[in-house]
Amino acid sequence: MKARIFVTLKNGVLDPQGKAIEHALSNMGFEGVDEARQGKFIELELSETDRAKAEANVDEMCRKLLANTVIENYSIELE
Amino acid sequence: MKSAVIVFPGSNCDRDMAVALEKITGQKPLMVWHQDYDFDKVDFIALPGGFSYGDYLRCGAMSARSHVMKEVVKRAEDGVPTFGVCNGFQILTETGLLPGALMRNANLHFVCKDVKMTVENADSMFTNAYKAGEEITIPVAHHDGNYFADDETLDRLEGEGQVAFKYAQDINGAQRRIAGVMNARGNVLGMMPHPERMIESPLGGSDGRKMFESVMNTLG
């Protein structure tokens, strides 16, 4: 089973890299980008076949390592 | 005072820290490689600056989950004075020993210069040799020193005297210009500036010396 994890900065946490991306896009002539936020994408290949167990396991991985919940949110997709 | 410097793959200020500790305490510190986590009892633990584990995932994230840090967390929770500089500060926040997080500098630049900062709390075991409000000059060298915590946490840190140092001017976007914080018990300090690089005049000044002397005053 594959787990896809998206780690994003929480609302209200300043994202200077996202800001720089937003400015670069605007400088390149791309219009209509109101905001850019940068995050991380992590893909895991799991041997677990039970969906509920996999989800609980990946959630724990996110809380303990993959995301810093002081500043980041995460979401998990299983496939 | 017997001290230990924890060394991770990618630490690069460990020897500066060792020189400062030896000069000031008169005793060579124990250099603890991250795999040798069963190290002797010490009075003081220092986490040096650098780029441990190449800053993979987040600065300090990998080191914070290492075996040696499990041991350091246990000892810090037992009351052993524990001090992290720069990457060491990032590691301490990642373990949860210190509140908040260190993010990419707001201007995205690596900041490497001497900065002025003020001593916000001169009663702690790490700062008692300074005067309250004293302005000192200490070098910084970091890309991720932008201290972040939510407002409630920041209010608590300021109210409880857990903010040890503040930058005199904003250099990296840190909330409330915070340069160094302590845990509630006061035996763990993390700071972005490098006091170990300012311990005698040939290095450009000695304002960092009192940080180490404070700990010695406390431990006797």
Question: What keywords describe this structure?
Answer:
heterodimer, A: 79 residues, alpha+beta, Mth169, Chain: A, 2 helices, B: 220 residues, alpha/beta, Rossmann fold, 9-stranded mixed sheet, two-stranded antiparallel ribbon
Strand content bin of chain B:
15-25%
N-to-C span of chain B: 8 Å
Radius of gyration of CA atoms of chain B, rounded to a whole number: 15 Å
Mean pLDDT of chain B: 97
- CATH-wise, what's the superfamily of chain A? Phosphoribosylformylglycinamidine synthase subunit PurS
Question: What is the CATH class name of chain B?
Answer: Alpha Beta
| CATH architecture level-2 label of chain A | 2-Layer Sandwich
Q: Tally of extended strands of chain A?
A: 3
Biggest β-sheet: strands ordered side by side in the sheet of chain B = 2-1-3-4-11-10-9-6-7
Beta strand % of chain A? 25-35%
Task: Please give a structural write-up.
The complex is a heterodimer of chains A (79) and B (220). Chain A is α+β, with helices and mostly antiparallel strands and 79 residues long. In chain A, 35% of the residues lie in helices and 27% in strands. Chain A has one domain (2-78): Mth169, Chain: A. Chain A contains two helices and three strands, in the order βαβαβ. The longest helix of chain A is centred in the last third of the chain and has 16 residues, at 51-66. Chain A is elongated. Chain B has 220 residues and is α/β, with parallel strands linked by helices. The A-B interface holds A 13-14, 16-17, 20, 40, 64-66, 68, 70-71 and B 57-58, 61, 65, 93-94, 99-101, 103-108, 146, 148-149, 173.
Could you give a short description of this structure?
By secondary structure, chain A is of the alpha+beta class. Helix content of chain A is 35%, strand content 27%. Chain B has one domain (3-219): Class I glutamine amidotransferase (GATase) domain (Rossmann fold), CATH 3.40.50.
